[in-house]
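Quick question, first post here. What does this chain look like in 3D?
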Amino acid sequence: MIQIKPITDLRNTTEISDLCHSRKEPIFITKNGYGDMVVMSIESYSELIDMIQTDNAIREAEAEYNENGILFDARDTLKTLRRKHFG
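> Answer (accepted):
Ran it through. Tokens below.
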């Protein structure tokens, strides 16, 4: 369930921190009744960034395939990379 807290609740940093870590999701902070900030744990933030980077890599690979239609065999490509980087 989405957690929405007024900005005045940020005074109790321990409670906000505990909420972030126990629920593993962001807390939306409001100011004067309007959305203002999002607070989340470092772990949740790292997971979010990793997911975005993975999605971007997949999107780039799909665009490259749609552009030239070439697929590479994974075993051959890995062998080439191993020879190139590990001798």
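The mean pLDDT is 93.
The two ends are 52 Å apart (CA to CA).
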